Every structure is written in C-alpha cells, then in structure tokens.
Amino acid sequence: xxxxxxxxxxxxxxxxxxxxxxxxLRHLKGTGVQPRPHLKTAKSPDVARxxxxxxxxxxxxxxxxEAEVFAKAGFxxxxxxxxxxxxxxxxxxxALHQDHPRIRTVVDSIEGARGLNDAVAANxxxxxxxxxxxxxxxxxGVPPGEPALVLAQAIxxxxxxxxxxxxxxxxxxxxxxxxxVKRQRCEAAMQSLGSTVELLRQAGHSVETVTTxxxxxxxxxxxxxIVNEVQPGxxxxxxxxxxxxxxxxxxxxxxxxxxATVISCPTPLRxxxxxxxxxxxxxxxxxxxxxxxxxxxxxxxxxxGMLEWGPELNLSLAIGDQVALIPSHIDTTVxxxxxxxxxxxxxxxxxxxxxxxxxxx
Length: 361
Ligand SMILES: Cc1ncc(COP(=O)(O)O)c(C=O)c1O
Hints:
This protein is α/β, with parallel strands linked by helices. The protein has helices at 14-28, 45-53, 64-72, 87-99, 110-119, 146-156, 179-202, 218-222, 240-246, 330-334, and strands at residues 9-13, 34-35, 59-61, 78-80, 104-107, 127-132, 161-167, 209-212, 229-230, 256-267, 270-273, 288-289, 296-299, 305-308, 322-326, 339-344, 347-353. The chain is 30% helix and 22% strand.
C-alpha cells in the first residue's frame, strides 16, 4: 500500500466502518435493545456523525473531558461511564449539565452521589444517574443485591438526582475466547444484574435503563430480557485482540490501520518502519501487518518498529514502502493520534480530527 500520506498515520476504511455499524444494527434489530455506542474508542465527532447518520442517537463516553468535546459537537445524549469525583470535576459536570440536561452519569457510593447532588443543586433540574453495579469485573461498582438497594434508597433522598437505571458492564468477559465459557459467564453476570434490578423495582425505585455489554458480549447481553441498552465501542474499527478473541464468530472488519513507512532494510530478512511504541500501543500485544502474511511486527524502540520474516517468504521490502499495521488495541492506539485519514473505494475522502484524544480528565 503506497500513498502520499505522511506516516505514522491512522487510516480508516469508511466502507468497512459503515459495514460494521450496520452489523451492530442488524444484530440488535427486533431485540428491543437500543445501542449506546462507546465513543471512547473513536474519540471523534466525525465518527459520532457516522453513527448518527445510521440512526444512533445516544452514546457513552468514559471521561468528563470526552463528554465536553462531544456535547460541544452536538452529541449530548451522553452517559459518562465513570465515577465523577473531586471539586474541580464536579464543577465542570454542573456546568455541562446546565447546558446539556441529557447528560447522565454513574455512581457507586453514597459519598459520590452526595457530591453529584450538591454539585447540580443550583441547576434547577435533576441530574440523571445510574447505579454502577459490579457484575464480576471487580473494578468500580457496588456489589449486586442489598448494597445496590441501600445506595438507591440514599439517592432517593437526594432532591437533585434522578435515578434512571442500572449500569453493569462485564468488561472481564469481552475477550473470553471460548464461546460456551463466555455464554455461561455472561449469563451469570446478567443474572446478578437482573436480580438487582428486580430488587430495586420491587422496592419502588424506577429503573428505566438497564445498560451493559461491549463488542465481545453485547449479543449475549441483548438476549437477556432485563437488558434494554448495550454499549459496545470497539466494533466501529475492531482490532487485533478482538479479532483473535471473537474468532470464527467475528462479523466485524478491521477498519483501521496504522500506516508506517519502511525507513531501513538492514538485512534481507528484516525491515525497520517508522512506527514504534509512540505509534502503536502494546498493552494487548503487538500489531500485525495486514497485507504481509507471515511477517511479524514488533516495536524496536519509541520511534521504530521491526518487521521480520523467514527466508521461505521470499519477500523483499524497499525503503519508502508503506505498510499497513492492524493495532492490537484500538483505544490506546487512537489516543496517540490527532487525525484520521478516511478513505473509501481506495480514495482519500476526509481528514477527521480526533478531538477527544488525550481527554483523560
Ligand atoms: C463501561 C464500558 N462500557 C463499554 C465498553 C466498550 O467496550 P468495547 O470497546 O470492548 O466494545 C467499555 C470498554 O472498555 C467500558 O469500559
């Protein structure tokens, strides 16, 4: 693949992204379950625009800083899926909620709820919140059952909060490879989510939204009658780790690559490219060359990557050649770039700003 784009660069195949979005919608059709895609993966209002053009209206973000970017770009039906804590953030949240009352967020403690309640007290309209439940991931989230009820009862006494749902994300199951193991473990997670929602409803709490599910699990979650919203993010581009984990069940295409240039060919069996640790994240393993079967990539420093192959391949790469690399983990790789180069039918059609890149606060 040779282009006149400077490297390292993120290339997005628009046709594959659109196909991925349609795959999600096809899977959910007739289930009564609404998609609320997670924008922390793509971090770009232009990608949100593609999702919106397909009829998707609500979104997740991980951080308040991402919410600020997307709300400003016109996408304010947002659920911020992490606990918002600390005076500075609470003040920012209150300001965002004042202008964008559809913003909602999650909470897993009475202190956290109190902070939110006090922060939005002067806004004159309640903040919609969801209880975050730990359905087995062991990250944030109140334990299922009685502790969730105690939190719901405390929230009911806070006049500036409106409890609208329960969020229970089974992040620990996204990359489980064995489909039977994944199904069983997901069913257990959905059972604990479901029984807690029933407990809250029986106690008179309104739980309109029951939200969960990532790219690796949303189809299983959507089969559970209690679930009415799913939050996959990676499906838009997919990545190497997901492709491996989904295996034969994968219906998504790798729509994003890092384009790198060969800058040195020191021996016949290796070539050095200009994409290293600062261009491709490695938290989920190494990237893979897309169009060079049998060639391995590994980082060779901050700014360098090594392509290696055996003599049986009879391959020769030339200095200046460009190579497409499939990132192992999309989210952490996208966060290294300012821009997507989008192409369709082998023609570059747009540059999209990754405006929420680095918005970790
Ligand atoms: C709370 C939450 N929901 C949804 C997702 C989306 O998951 P994925 O990108 O695997 O589809 C994530 C990803 O980390 C998450 O943390």
